[in-house]
Amino acid sequence: MGRTVKNPKERRQEFVEAAEALFMKKGYQDTSISDIVKQVGVAHGLFYYYFETKEDILDAIIDNMIAESRHRLNSIVHGDENPLNKYHRFVQEMFVLKKNKPYLIGYMLQDRNRIFYHKWMGKALWEITPLLTEIVKQGIATGCFDTPYPREAVEFIFNGMRFFLASPDDLQGEALRRKIIATADMMERVLGAEKGVIMCLYQEITPDVLDMMDESMQFAGGGAHDE
Predict the structure, then answer these.
(1) Fewer CB atoms inside 10 A, N or C side of the chain?
(2) ∠ at Cα 208 (125, 191), nearest 5°?
(3) What single-letter DSSP state applies at residue 193?
(4) Within 78-191, where are the H helices?
């Protein structure tokens, strides 16, 4: 039988999906280009037709994840709800995106995968900050929020949320619950929101976040993830 020739976009996506599975299972540092090529089942040289380095394919994985997030979050920004409801849906959707891949956070907490975490966080903040900023601006116009620095407020909030992953010891139980409530309190202050309007949302989603992190932490020790 002759060799199967696939559409370049389809073949490139095969590399991306194979690499993501291997990075999640073995870690970025411990996965070689040869591992990825073997997973796809093609000649080694074909990898370099689509990517120059292993880091390039990591960038492609992150771009796919962020594109999915942007598509879903963008529909919220341009919806017909009031800004406070949009803000609530935006926050809920961000947690849902993580909940769909609970192993992802766990693997990001592993030292061997920190490069993945830093690249993902940096690109996510760059892409998602303008979307939430637009909601905050809408909220300012309708009186839901009161801040003269909408983009800076959002940047402060997103960068502050990095402390969630700073210490694995604080990502479960009462320590995590306290961080969630503290985040809601700080968001209200930074955005100039009425006291309690963001807190009530975070109190509502806290049980789901705790469950998500309990599941995610199962993968923080380096165990394999089978899809």
Answers:
(1) N
(2) 45
(3) P
(4) 83-99, 102-108, 114-142, 150-160, 173-191
Which residue, 164, 159, 194, is CA-closest to 177?
Answer: 164
Q: How many residues does the chain have?
A: 227
> Tens digits of per-residue pLDDT, 134-146?
999 999 999 999 9
The separation between CA 72 and the C-alpha centre of its own chain, rounded to angstroms, equals 13
| 79 φ/ψ sector (left φ>0, alpha ψ -120 to 50, else beta) | beta
Tokens of 209: 């976040």
For the entire predicted model, the pTM comes to: 0.76
Containing 58, the helix (H) or strand (E) segment is: helix 54-77
The torsion of the CA quartet 107, 113, 118, 121, rounded to 10 degrees, works out to: -20
- How far is residue 27's CA from residue 88's CA, in Å, rounded to a whole number? 34
Instruction: Work out the burial of residue 99: count CB atoms within 10 Å of its CB; fewer than 13 is exposed, 13-18 middle, 19 or more buried.
Output: middle
Give residue 152's pLDDT band: very low, low, confident or very high (50, 70, 90): very high
> Residue 191: what residue type?
L
**pLDDT class for 115, splitting at 50, 70, 90?**
confident
CB 191 within 8 A of CB 153: yes
Q: Are 158 and 129 in contact (CB under 8 A)?
A: yes
CB 112 within 8 A of CB 29: yes
